[in-house]
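Lab manual, section 2.4: Encoding a predicted structure.

Procedure: take the sequence of the chain (165 residues), apply the prediction step described in section 2.3, and record the output as structure tokens. A sample record is shown.
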Amino acid sequence: MIALVRIDGRLVHGMVAVSWMGEVNPDTFVVVNDRAANDPFETMTLKLAKPANADMFVWSKEKAVDRLNSGKYDKKKLFVIVGNVYDAKYLIDNVKGIGRLNVGPPLDEKSGRITEGKKEVVNVYISPEEFQVLKEIHNKGVEVFAQITPTVAKADYEEIAKKFE
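Recorded output:
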């Protein structure tokens, strides 16, 4: 069972490994990122940041779809991290049973956190193009919300949508 999919451009870092892992309390932590899955050094680095109490996999999008639909992980509680809204949509379009999407801070690979041309929602910056993708995800019945950490305010889809009206 996929408990939560989170968008976070940094993939695995302290906030994810401590705050979100503590909130979700998964058996298995899955990073879905083509770049990381195809780079042994990056995969190793990500696995160094994982908490000891959960298994961790770093998969490409294609491998994630195959594995998550295989039934092998149906009895596990999964926490899935993707780097951007487009990878989240790919998973939601191709994997059954994703009910919640947490929008965290996506990052641009070249310059870090990008705010130009984006609207701020509880310290998460979303472009009009990204919002359209989130709207499609929401319209599929997935709970979409923006939240940096579990201990701070969150914005539900309706609050996000108000920024783009």
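Check your result against the sample. The chain has a mean pLDDT of 89.
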